[in-house]
Amino acid sequence: KHKITFLDTPGHAAFSAMRARGANVTDIAVIVVAATEGVKPQTKEAIDHAKAAGVAIIVAINKVDLPDANVDRTIAGLLEQGVYLENYGGDVPWCKTSVVTGEGILNLIELIILTAEMKELTARIQVPAEAIVIESQKDPRMGAIATILMREGMLSKGDIIVCGATYGRIRKMENERGVEIKVLYPSDVARVFGLSEAPKAGDVLNQVDDDKTARSISTERQQIRLEREKYQNKSSLQNIFARIQEDKVNELKIILKTDTDGSSEAIADSFQKISNDEVKVNIIHKSVGGINEADISLAAASDAIIVGFHVRASQVARRLAEDEGVEIKLYQVIYDAIEDVRKALEGMLKPDFEDLILGSAVIKQVFRIKKLPPIAGCYVERGVVKRVCKVRIYRNDVLVNETELTSLKHYQNDVKEVRAGSECGLTIQNFQDIKDGDVLEFYTIQEIQKKLQ
Predict the structure, then answer these.
(1) Superfamily name with CATH number, domain 130-230
(2) Given Cys at both, which of 127, 164, 225, 295 links 203, Cβ 3.0 to 4.6 Å?
(3) pLDDT: is 266 or 195 the higher one?
(4) What contacts 407, CB < 8 A, 6 or more positions away?
(5) Do 322 and 296 form a contact (C-beta atoms < 8 A)?
(6) Dihedrals φ, ψ of 14, to 5°?
(7) Which band of pLDDT confidence, cut at 50, 70 and 90, is reported for residue 230?
(8) Could you give phi then psi for residue 334, rounded to 5 degrees?
(9) What pLDDT digit, counting tens, does each position of 392-440 carry?
């Protein structure tokens, strides 16, 4: 027995919101294309959403019963969008369907089941329940209501739950027909009543043992959410760079909107040429026309920036971009767009590091005091000694240790640096076996920003 839950549709706002919060609610995306119309802009958006989410794709070419249906044209359009179907040079499963005659519907179900088996899509039952919020609302009479999709475990009336940064005890659960149900299982969809506040689409719902645990998790998540809000412009280049340094991404995701197909191809080709093995541009969606709400939703969900050439954003799109923290970069000159992206990629490159030699000194006499680290009385032969620096210790031209200074004095005074021709006293971190005649080489580590060729 197989259980399939259909969520209509992967391109809608809730789906984008879920992905923006790191929750992939779908396992398989069924792209329905009308054979009478072929690949439309909204089809391309749905394909790009599915690709960006990394989910398996199945194509259903629908309306094949109509006289003006053209399956070959539809397949050609899909191939142009990089959707390579089985028997057409790719491995994307597909079938012809008609919701009117029922043709191909069983084939579609079989393809879904086969894909699920190949991906080994299974769910655990004997674990604490987990679900994802599809949408939510605040009813004046019933309070907060969350529509959830179960991922694993079982959820019952009376269970204590944490959902995003809110929590509560389940008072009631209804299925999609409004019938009250007692228990939810994996893949079930239901409306849940009993939360203190309405959660957000994409929030994770977890079953917990008691109110104390629920309050603790809720408080922690509220703090995390507040921290995130400090960095609301999540799709800005500055914050993308920050995550690069944390090894979280190595590509710059771009949604490209242009005035013509020619401009789109020229700019996309130029962006790809300035990528290298370490960092790259990933154009997750490109199309001709102004920047719209769908572009903003995809950018927010994918952590992408929007590059526009000879186009502008609608007023609604600009407001949504501001709310979602999506950066829009508009250009009139192709060269400017290429140079900005080149600089962005260079900012993403991990820097090289090299030693910057500051100076050297020779130990003239070691002073040892009980219960204190030895003090090296030194003569600075060249350069400068800095209080905050690293040091290599050489004995008879052989390296014996690498460490740091813990103090630096000139006579009895603590100083920040001592220059060549002067004497100083210093102590060395975690190394006490210093001897008269040892040579100390002082250095710092310098960051070198790499450039793209």
Answers:
(1) Translation factors (2.40.30.10)
(2) 164
(3) 195
(4) 387, 414, 426, 427
(5) no
(6) -65, -40
(7) low
(8) -60, -40
(9) 999 999 999 999 999 999 988 999 999 999 999 999 999 999 999 999 9
What is the pTM (predicted TM-score) of this model? 0.58
What confidence category does residue 233 fall into, taking pLDDT thresholds of 50, 70 and 90?
very low
CA 445, chain centre distance (Å): 31
Domain 13-118: assigned CATH number? 3.40.50.300
Closest CA to 403 of 447, 360, 442: 442
Selected from 3.10.20.310, 2.40.30.10, 3.40.50.150, 3.40.50.2300, the CATH number assigned to the domain covering 353-448 reads: 2.40.30.10
Q: Give the pLDDT score at 128.
A: 94
Q: Indicate where the chain has its CATH 2.40.30.10 domain(s).
A: 130-230, 353-448
Cα 388 from chain centre: 37
Q: Using CA atoms, how far apart are residues 376 and 61, in angstroms rounded to an integer?
A: 81
pLDDT of residue 351: 77
What's the CA gap between 133 and 287, in Å, rounded?
A: 31
Per-residue pLDDT for 227 more than 70?
Answer: no
